[in-house]
Fold each of these.
Amino acid sequence: MKITEITIRHLTMHLKNPFTTSFGTFKDKEFLLIETIDEKGTVGFGECVAFETPWYTEETVKTCWHMLEDFLIPLVLNKEISHPDEVSEIFKSIRKNNMAKSAIEGAFWDIYAQQTNQTLAQALGGNKKKIEVGISIGIQETVEKQLAVIDQAIKNGYKRIKVKIKPGWDLELIRIIREHFPKVQLMADANSAYTLNDIELFKQLDQYNLMMIEQPLATDDIIDHAKLQKQITTPICLDESITSLEDARKAIELGSCGVINIKIGRVGGLTEAKKIHDLCETNGIPVWCGGMLEAGIGRAHNIALTSLSNFVLPGDTAGSNHYWEEDIITPEVVAQDGYIAVPQTSGIGYKPNRDAIQKFTISTRHYK
Ligand SMILES: O=C(O)CCC(=O)c1ccccc1C(=O)O
Ligand SMILES: [Mg+2]
């Protein structure tokens, strides 16, 4: 395939419920949508998951646009590429900037799947017909509100609940949640809000039978996580710390985690995500697919990835209606009884909703 035209759109979408983490609150999601067209007229879409501010990783909407426009697009525009795996090879000359790389690589995968008449899931080697998903619930204003939101999520069919914790909103919160929901599959995500000085807190958390604790320590750490893992029984799940196959290899070798959360954008694309998946499978490390409050295009890519065999734990890919009044794909993503059906039409399996995309777009630029 040869991409002859690329469009970047800057969208802003209002979240149904504000999402609060240890770093702050989101009310809207601003992001870039990438549309690519090849010489045969096949259209592919990729979603850039970077946020407006660099709280989760160092990338932002603006840094991604800069990287795409000035470096990444010139490397792939009008180049003959036979397989999307080649895109990450070409991008190796650019350090990091994984979310920017991933956005464009995803559009190549979409086109490749369509041209080989496969679903994106099949193109990646995934066989599952449906995937099990959970839900990630942000920090609420009160414990009562937190319990009510969890209760509603369970009523909506989600069987695995993830809550966000931060210093002062942790042990007591988990104790109360467990008291109300003794059996639910429960986990906590700290988004790097703690240090090894908090080791007593983590030992205390062991009594609540959490499935895992996600990213308790620094965003770039695997050494302290290994020390912590040796002292607690709850498996540590790494999110922010794993940005590549090499990171995953080292974390596994050190014993820094028992589980890895794979996010396509964080690791630089589907090719790298699949490699991490395969490495974890070989090493007996279960994985699940993380989320970045994606709109429909990014969500569709997550669903395809989750169809791979070692995604054995429910991920954060909830249905469109958990996030949006209106999503940018048709049909929207539906989670029923905690499962999403993997679409069976070629490419990402959902149609971009051009009217909705238009409505949420605040600026557009074309490259050819
Ligand atoms: O529902 C989702 O998309 C995932 C929500 C979530 O936990 C999250 C959302 C934004 C940034 C980081 C994270 C995270 O997994 O740490
Ligand atoms: Mg996380």
Amino acid sequence: MENILELNQVSKEYNDFSLKEVSFSLKRGYIMGFIGPNGSGKSTTIRCIMDLAHIDAGEVKLFGTTYRENMKNLKKRIGFVYDTDVFFEDLSAEKNKKIISSFYDSWDDESFYRYAKDFQVPLDKPIKALSKGTKMKFSLAVALSHQAELIILDEPTSGLDPVFRKELLDILLDVIQDESKAIFFSTHITTDLEQVADYITFILDGKIIASEETETLLENYVLVKGPKSLIGSIKDLQPIMVKESPLGFEAFLKSDSLNELELDFDWKVEQPSLEELMYYLVKSSR
Ligand SMILES: Nc1ncnc2c1ncn2[C@@H]1O[C@H](COP(=O)(O)OP(=O)(O)OP(=O)(O)O)[C@@H](O)[C@H]1O
């Protein structure tokens, strides 16, 4: 199936930071989570995808084409949901909808009212009176009502309570059911991604260090916990990182460093969570 989003060797230089030959791709019908520590380049990458930041080298392809070839049309096919307030705060959600809808030929009022109802967005209230979570839902209702095929969200779940977060994640899962759309979203909440992301792209200091299926990514690594007496044996396997405590150790290593014999040792081998994987990969790089 065609890539709906494709970045090829995208580079962007700021004074103190650069995106370094960022490449990854996403197909229709899937959700990709975009993770990385603070300041690693997530928002910058998203701004490059949205053509809000000029790229110095490389190429961003959307729906198989580039902004250079097709600027006006491309933007309309993307639903961009982000944290900063982009609406007319003093106007009601209904009036905001009226203004925004006039920009889109493909606007579908019926969908909008259905989503607003499903998401319980009060349309008569001014935007400034809505909670953060409700604003996010309004934003998503807008994105879905102009028939966006690619939904890009920059930290949509940050600051939302667990109930709102779960609702939002269910909505995202629902959106990709017909397999014609794709979702790309950045977040620090890795447990959200374990629930919904088919793929994970991991950025660190402006460089992509992994972009693959969530399951495969997690299966690539193991956490081994064992007593002090086995510390020499674990170190022989050249782990990525070992944390020692008075009682024993916790080691993070590539799964293929363990062979069958070593599985028989008196230590516990676990698959790391996404949060543990992120912690160890970030720590070991510093
Ligand atoms: N317009 C700009 N001019 C100069 N530097 C910038 C600009 N925009 C971002 N940066 C720098 O780029 C780096 C990456 O920032 P970015 O916002 O992309 O990170 P992030 O991964 O989204 O971080 P966070 O998780 O904290 O939101 C930061 O050091 C930031 O200061």
Amino acid sequence: MEAAPGNLAGVRHVILVLSGKGGVGKSTISAELALALRHAGKKVGLLDVDLCGPSLPRMLRVQDRAVHQCDRGWVPVFVDREQSLSLMSVGFLLEKPDEAVVWRGPKKNALIKQFVSDVAWGPLDYLVVDTPPGTSDEHMAAVDALRPCGPLGALVVTTPQAVSVGDVRRELTFCRKVGLRILGVVENMSGFVCPHCAECTNVFSRGGGEELARHAGVPFLGSVPLDPELCRSLEEGRDPTQSFPASPAFPALCSIAQRILSEAPAGLC
Ligand SMILES: Nc1ncnc2c1ncn2[C@@H]1O[C@H](COP(=O)(O)OP(=O)(O)OP(=O)(O)O)[C@@H](O)[C@H]1O
Ligand code: SF4
């Protein structure tokens, strides 16, 4: 395998977060996974290649910050004082936060390649990559640019309904075709836990993600419930592990991070 070049040389593991369709919580899971890995003592980078819907700067409350240039390229925005979680997003390059990115494919692909190669990530245990929904040229551009890092892990997010599960099946086929190592499926918005009595109501049905994983022969990493506190923490840019440690989503997210951590020695990348 060729050695990872330049700015990627210090990146140990890469995880692409994918979903068959939009709005299933891919950015949420990317952000929360990055926070949970950071809480486990890891140095984490988050790369937002969802060029048309860059939501991570807002979710992590760093939307007013700017990226700077250094001799090795762009310096990502550090989310925490300890500088253990850094973020690069097209959101930092837009003049206004609600400006639309209306570029054609080649320009988007060129920017994705630049995001991968021209960001001075420094040493990272994990680089978590939030991708656009579906499968597109942008996914291929990200995979091609990241491939020199070694085998790339893929985490696929779905909601429990059958329609989302169908989209995920296509996503898993894509992962296999381009040689991503499928770490597993996460079922998001899986039931609503009542804040009064802790009874779980399966708003959108339940178990589609687990069933899909079983059929596809890939690991099921866990279910994250619909959680108003998680939603609130994202709206307010707060870390739910700190602000809402008793929220129902928190143990689920921690256990997914633990599964990812336990995969690493088995050669994630
Ligand atoms: N488990 C959850 N509990 C409560 N709210 C959630 C949960 N997961 C996601 N959300 C909320 O659902 C909305 C969509 O989530 P998110 O932006 O992460 O989806 P996405 O799949 O990345 O969307 P897209 O890529 O299409 O923009 C957000 O407002 C987020 O706060
Ligand atoms: S689950 Fe029970 S306690 Fe919770 S809102 Fe419904 S009726 Fe009330």
Amino acid sequence: MIELKNVSKTYGKGQLRLQALSDISFQLQKGEILGIIGRSGAGKSTLIRCVNLLEIPDQGQVIINNTDITGLKGKKLEEQRKKIGMIFQHFNLLTSRTIFDNIALPMELAGKSKKEIREKVEELLELVGIADKARQYPANLSGGQKQRVAIARALANDPHLLLCDEATSALDPATTKSILELLQRINERLKITILIITHEMEVVKSICHSVAIIDKGKLMVKGTVQEILSDQNHPVVAAFLPEEKDIQLPTDIAKTIKATYTEEGSAVVEIKMPENGTITWIADVASLFNVKVRIIKSAIESFGTLTTGYLIALFEGDNLQIEQALHYLNEKKINIKLKGYASR
Ligand SMILES: Nc1ncnc2c1ncn2[C@@H]1O[C@H](COP(=O)(O)OP(=O)(O)OP(=O)(O)O)[C@@H](O)[C@H]1O
């Protein structure tokens, strides 16, 4: 079990003094995957760096399997650090070393034998699915493959804890999914505890067992993903709710949008998603007014049964009929906002 007890950290002195972490306490059970979310500057990276003592807390304790590692120095601290793996947003691989040698590095530093290192690296290459890349260099790999190397390297000394600092933030959605699946497989197979710092809801929803939110250096709440995400008033949910400012007009439309209808134009309409996540009126608008609704942008999140967010749609048709359709939707109290008119 991993426990943080009343951990605080300040940077700077005098007027520049900044309380980055304030009295943080939580527990992580063996095999748990905890996601920590929070706004930029909330203290997420400081927290994760305090867990492996890359930053030394001013106060409080980091207790790993009943050992208070904050009190350790020298070799004893190094021994404990070896049991904590870490992966980063930008992978942090050594460009002059092959993939094999990148993964081998922590074991070389730990003084393992060549045979031991070879066997372990081969096993890890298989585990993360890049056995064919052993002799390549990082520059020849995709982002997802680089993160697989970083994961293998983080596992080299059989850690009991894996720290992930925005590990999928630089990856596209499909690669993110495959890396999250890999982390989940590692968690299940090796029973390794994982602490993830993220700003991506997808990460929390797809692999975390529990989630906590950090705000201005304070840990607000920790709970299971299920209980937190089904409560739409929960601060964790609120932190992820798309706001109106999150949906912007596509640039080509923003440049040409006009306040009045133009011949051969279409109305640009912002739609607030209803909470049940279903828009039922598109077919009505088509059949009653011969207006075609085309969704061109969305910022939507789902939490349990709640769906929330915004869409941008083009209403295409004759001016009068578009106006009638908008009037009809306003009468029905559908949450829409006319942004202007675009040329087709
Ligand atoms: N080495 C440092 N020296 C001084 N201030 C620091 C240092 N590292 C972080 N800070 C400050 O501490 C606060 C927390 O920073 P931290 O990097 O932990 O936030 P974060 O939640 O990880 O942010 P982001 O999501 O933008 O990476 C910020 O105000 C930051 O400017």
